[in-house]
Amino acid sequence: xxxxxxxxxRREQPATRDQKxxxxxxxxxxxxxxxxxxxxxxxxxxxxxxxxxxxxxxESATVLRQRxxxxxx
Length: 73
Fold this sequence. Notes:
Layout lengths: L2 E7 L7 H19 L7 E7 L5 E2 L2 E2 H10 L3
Parallel strand pairs: 1-2
Antiparallel strand pairs: 3-4
């Protein structure tokens, strides 16, 4: 049974229910087409990671995003 995990960085506008459903459907179809897996055997998990829980260059994503917004980007 394939297990697919999709990790998304949570944004101010989180992924909608419809977007998540499309991700689940698309990942399932991809495994069906590429590996010949039956859709009912594919499990898809979506993790939305809080920006305080990851970072780059020694700073949390929250801090990096605040700096980017302040710079106009």
